[in-house]
Design goal:
The structure holds 2 protein chains of 2 kinds. Chain A is of the alpha/beta class. Chain A folds into 2 domains: 207 residues, Rossmann fold (3-Layer(aba) Sandwich), CATH 3.40.50; 76 residues, 2-Layer Sandwich (Alpha-Beta Plaits). Chain A has 11 helices and 14 strands. In chain A, strand 4 and strand 5 form a beta hairpin. The longest helix of chain A has 17 residues. The two termini of chain A are 25 Å apart. By secondary structure, chain B is mainly alpha-helical. Chain B folds into 2 domains: 68 residues, Orthogonal Bundle (Arc Repressor Mutant, subunit A); 44 residues, no CATH class. In chain B, 48% of the residues lie in helices and 6% in strands. In chain B, strands 1-2 form a two-stranded antiparallel ribbon. In chain B, a hairpin with a 3-residue loop joins strand 1 and strand 2. The longest helix of chain B is centred in the N-terminal third of the chain and has 15 residues. Chain B is elongated. Classes of the chains: A alpha/beta, B mainly alpha.
Chain lengths: 298, 128
């Protein structure tokens, strides 16, 4: 099945001095998916991405991109990956056009038509020098560079941070959808969970250098729920310690449980204690993340 | 100066003009103060659109290779008197790749220095 993985990380560890950036990161990204790598700042998203492009090396664990080991085939990998880094660093004295020409020169698959369409969609002036571009414009240039070679895998680190809201919606809805329609794989990192909620089909939720939850968006939203219980007296221990319970928060006399997996059994347990009220609620990705990072019981 | 324009090449015509002027400066066949043909003149003799020539000249001016003097025409600039330094296009490619990977100019300089001095590069950038 490994050949179907666009990205596969197994028990990847990475420290910078004393700081542990990744501590046993394991996840896989299926080809053709739009996978969102989510988590708060400092969760290890950017480090994970930099390892994929061999811009840094893991201390241990294995990581492959498009079926190739990142430590051995970084040049081949980069040729087939479009990457928008979090920090854009184009040479300040080059014009937009010069940057595009240089890239076109080194890419065998450059789609000039797509490049021009994006240039005009973004309204990016080709004669403008990089040092005269706003942060948003630099982000747009980075996007054009990543998309125009029609890469097999597109890796976007906080892609929409510099875009205005209209552009952002356009980007999330149309551009990424088109990319996925062509069978290209997209991995995008974001700390803005609600933004990717409608775009991504797969989620890797990270915290403290680990994946704390992975799966299809649909599956996660179907299995992760909230249960509000108003018990008689306190919350029974067999409910509080039930394996399906991720986190518990008290709300006055009631308790708000975030649950995952076998909720049938949990609900049966709850009902055995004749609670005043029980209510099962859907969760947003944001809620799921908060609950998971509070409990962090892996 | 003679321009050889070949419309059947994949390289856009304005870039062909730019490369030929740049090449002339590089080889020393074009020197500072040399006058380039007028836009219309070159357009007619090379059978290309005047806008294409104008675009090439504009770009050459942006790159600091030519100067336009009002009423007098387009000349090879003084700034281009020194022969261009070697490996410029290779460096441009390196800068471009670094830029794509989010590696800024300062970090790139540091990496080049370390590579040249043969110092170990910690765990950063371990190409092959």
């Amino acid at each position: 099945m490994t050949d179907r993985a666009a990205i596969e990380a197994v028990d990847v560890h990475k420290s910078f001095g004393e700081v542990k950036a990744l501590s046993g990161l394991t996840f896989r990204v299926e080809r053709g998916s739009i996978t969102a790598l989510l988590g708060p700042n400092g969760a290890g998203k950017t480090t994970a991405i930099r390892l994929m492009l061999n811009l840094a090396a893991q201390d241990r664990g294995s990581l492959s991109v498009l079926g190739m080991d990142t430590r051995q085939h970084s040049l081949l990998i980069r040729r087939r990956v479009g990457y928008v880094p979090e920090n854009r660093a184009f040479t300040p004295g080059f014009t937009v056009k010069r940057v595009l020409e240089l890239f076109q020169g080194i890419s065998e698959t450059w789609d000039k038509e797509l490049q021009n369409r994006l240039l005009s969609d973004f309204n990016l002036p080709p004669t403008r020098k990089v040092r005269e571009l706003s942060r948003g414009m630099t982000g747009q240039l980075a996007l054009i560079l990543a998309l125009s070679p029609r890469p097999d895998l597109l890796i976007l680190d906080e892609p929409v941070s510099g875009l205005d809201p209209v552009m952002r919606r356009e980007f999330m809805r149309n551009i990424l959808a088109e990319v996925a329609d062509r069978g290209q794989t997209v991995l995008l990192s974001s700390h803005n969970l609600s933004e990717v909620e409608r775009t991504a089909d797969t989620v890797v939720l990270m915290n403290h250098g680990k994946a704390i939850l992975t799966g299809s968006m649909e599956h996660i939203k179907n299995t992760e729920k909230k249960v509000r219980v108003a018990p008689q007296g306190g919350l029974p221990p067999e409910v509080e310690n039930h394996p399906a319970v991720i986190s518990v928060r008290s709300e006055g006399r009631a308790f708000l449980l975030t649950v995952s997996g076998d909720t049938e059994d949990l609900l049966a347990q709850i009902h055995r204690h004749n609670p005043f009220a029980v209510e099962v609620l859907d969760l947003s990705l944001e809620d799921i993340f908060l609950a998971r990072s509070e409990g962090d019981k892996q | 100066m003679w321009f050889r324009i070949n419309p059947s090449l994949a390289l856009p015509i304005y870039l062909q003009i730019i490369r030929q002027v740049e090449g002339g400066v590089e080889r020393g066949t074009l020197r500072p103060g040399d006058r380039l043909p007028a836009v219309r003149e070159l357009a007619v003799s090379a059978a290309v659109n005047p806008n294409t020539v104008a675009r090439a000249y504009r770009e050459l001016e942006e790159r600091g290779i030519v100067e336009t003097r009002r009423g007098a025409g387009t000349f090879i600039g003084k700034g281009s008197s020194t022969r261009p330094e070697p490996l410029q296009s290779e460096l441009d490619l390196l800068l471009t790749e670094a830029g794509r990977m989010g590696i800024g100019d300062e970090e790139l300089l540091r990496l080049v220095e370390r590579r040249v001095l043969g110092r170990p590069t910690e765990s950063e950038e371990t190409e092959q």
